[in-house]
Design a protein that fits this description.
This protein is 6% helix and 40% strand. It is mainly β.
């Protein structure tokens, strides 16, 4: 998973997260897009999806989100996160049990 902060509230039932365009390769279908996980009750806008700059989130749960709140997403492909972040946190239940460097964190970059 990864978390993004809420940076805009254009309407009561819309919350906009910063970034989020960590798509798996291929056509942008449901299997290749990250999906909002927590809080429950959020969905991507079918006209925008997850964007590199912003990700609009729709649904009743968006009403309770404020600026700075985090939304947790399930990623579609771990490699996309490893390309952009230098470390990952390994979680077991509600505990962070380890932190590992990604290839980006090791100073490597792949095409």
């Amino acid at each position: 998973m990864f978390a993004l902060p809420i940076v805009r509230k254009p309407a009561a039932a819309i919350a906009t997260a910063l970034g989020g365009g960590y798509l798996a390769s291929g056509p942008a279908d449901a299997a290749r897009l990250p999906s909002p996980h927590l809080p429950a009750g959020l969905r991507l806008d079918r006209f925008e999806g997850a964007g590199e700059v912003q990700t609009p989130l729709l649904g009743d749960a968006a009403r309770s989100l404020s600026f700075g709140d985090r939304v947790y997403f399930r990623h579609a492909k771990a490699g996309e996160l490893c390309e952009r972040f230098d470390r990952l946190h390994l979680v077991d239940g509600d505990r962070v049990v380890d932190e590992v460097r990604t290839y980006r964190g090791e100073g490597r970059c792949f095409l």
